[in-house]
Amino acid sequence: MKATTPAGRGAGFTPPDFGGSRFLRYRDLMRVGFREVVRKRRRYIGVVAAIALGTAGLIIVVTMGRDLKKNFNNDLDILGGATIINAHFEFFPMEKPEWFRDYTIKALSEIPGASVVANTVLQVDVETTWHDRSHKFSILGVDQNYWSIFGFTPALGRLFDASDIRAGARVCVLGAELARLICGTEQEAMGSTLTIDGNLYTVIGILGGVRAGDRGRIAFLPLSTALARINGISKPYNAYIRCSSWDDVDQVAERIPAVVAANQTSQGLVLYVSWEALKHVKRVYWWVTLFIYMSIGATIVLGGFGIWNIMMAAVTARTREIGLKKAMGAEDADILLQFLFEALSVTVTASILGVILGRAGVEYMGMLIGSSPPEGLFLLCLILGLIFAVVLGLGSGLLPSIRASRMQVVDAMRYE
What we know:
The protein is of the alpha+beta class. It has 2 domains: 26-71 and 282-413, no CATH class; 83-273, no CATH class. It has 15 helices and 10 strands. Strands 1, 2, 3, 4, 5, 6, 7, 8, 9 and 10 form a 10-stranded mixed sheet that branches. The two termini are 46 Å apart. The relative contact order is 0.18.
């Protein structure tokens, strides 16, 4: 019996097959699209590089942003002490002076966002004799955290540590100017013995660091030693709290009075915060971050426009090919999907390269700043990067694909 054809259909009509056996299956379309990109790879090098570098930069900035911010906070010479809070007890006439107890210092160090807490005591106008010459200077008793709060390093020798504090060691660190004033040179001061308030102290280091200039005429003693051996030295009424990040300064400063009041009286407590310096640092960081993100975004968007431009040119150049495929039975959807898959092949390939470069950059940055990259955040960036690549491919390839799919067979076949 002769087969009949539905009304309105030509003799060559093939009923749609929803099982997937169309003229070109999706798998074939993807293979053809990817193969076409590989064949014309030279024209895509620029946009692939732009999208890959943009993706890598975004991954590095997002993944390592927090660690980089912490590293900037550690460099207090750059921030100008913007993340340091000075908690101070003021003296009032006819009232007993207040000072920080050890358990209060411990409680302050446990405030979320507080990185390091240091306690200090001060004594002015002490005297020492060196080669029959008397010299007056000030003494500052500090703990081991004091050095890291202000970014001090030893110009010579070493700075005393927690073991010296626990032992009450009779050692001292001299400011560079004081070392030259007493001993002539910093090298000669190293290892010398000074008599301070009737006790002998060995000079184990010379204070160094960019911020050491304003402390050049001070001798530093271990806090426990100063409290035990220096007559008339002050109680530890001064404490310094360095915050983990400038974002933590507000909440740490807000919690300090309550923490102090929970452990001892807080009468006379005053906080000194460099609010103007903090605002300046935040403003500069915000603009720098905005510039970085805008640069990365512009790079990726330009890559998308590059794909759009190349795909539009490809549609024009392959007009006869499109007409031939349609004449052989390809539907509009087949042409549309093929060109979309070509755009997706470019963006996904670029995104994968960007992820690889981003991972290498994250590892390198982690090595530079001594930090391990957060794996969870990197994985999130990887997933978002791939999703964005798909969106970018669809967005940049959709219009050229629609244009190609809507071509008329006769006009396309006759195109010159």
